[in-house]
């Protein structure tokens, strides 16, 4: 059985403006911001405004509009970071590798021959904001 949505998760707090973020994009459907522990330079998270824990409890009618934003942000990240490729990840529940229980897609710009950084390392604030500005400018 899937647990229910918990409205005090960290991404819900970011959505409500109760926690800061390095914002890349926002409209009525989605919010995109820099991952605070980036596994690649320019690592962005895209979350829906619709409350959903993961892919399976996202209302189907809200999924299409949200995925259009994921694609739009991915294209901007690709351009802004001059990427050779993109890794796009989405985890469901603890067993699936999920840590924050509000649906999100990771967009990781990749460069030939460059591996991902280890998880759990805080990003430099100035670099996070500089990358956010580059991606905003590419939207
Ligand atoms: P997942 O749930 O997909 O495994 O990972 C959650 C992601 O959220 C991680 O990549 C982590 O670095 C990121 N994250 C966790 N807490 C915060 C936060 O407070 N702000 C931001 N911007 N990212 C966070």
Give a verbal description of the structure.
The chain has helices at residues 10-15, 60-80, 125-138, and strands at residues 23-26, 30-34, 44-48, 85-89, 105-110. The chain has three helices and five strands. The protein has a single domain, classed as HIT-like (HIT family, subunit A, 2-Layer Sandwich), CATH 3.30.428.10. Strands 1-2-3-5-4 form a five-stranded antiparallel beta sheet. Helix 2 packs across helix 3 (125-138). It has 139 residues and is an alpha+beta fold. Strand 1 (23-26) and strand 2 form a beta hairpin. The protein is 29% helix and 18% strand. The longest helix has 21 residues, at 60-80. 30% of the residues are buried. The chain is globular, with a radius of gyration of 14 Å. The structure holds guanosine-5'-monophosphate.
Label the overall shape. globular
Q: Please state the structural category.
A: alpha+beta
Strand order of the largest sheet: 1-2-3-5-4
The topology string of helices and strands comes to: HEEEHEEH
- Counted by DSSP, the helix tally is 3
What is the number of domains?
Answer: 1
Identify every distinct bound molecule in the structure, by name, code or SMILES.
guanosine-5'-monophosphate
CATH architecture: 2-Layer Sandwich
Work out the strand percent.
Answer: 15-25%
Number of strands: 5
Distance between the termini: 39 Å
Main β-sheet, in a few words?
A: 5 strands, antiparallel
Mean pLDDT: 97
Helical proportion?
A: 25-40%
Task: Please identify the top-level CATH class.
Answer: Alpha Beta
Q: Please identify which CATH superfamily we are dealing with.
A: HIT-like
Rg value: 14 Å
| CATH fold-level label | HIT family, subunit A
- Contiguous low-pLDDT stretches (5 residues minimum) are none
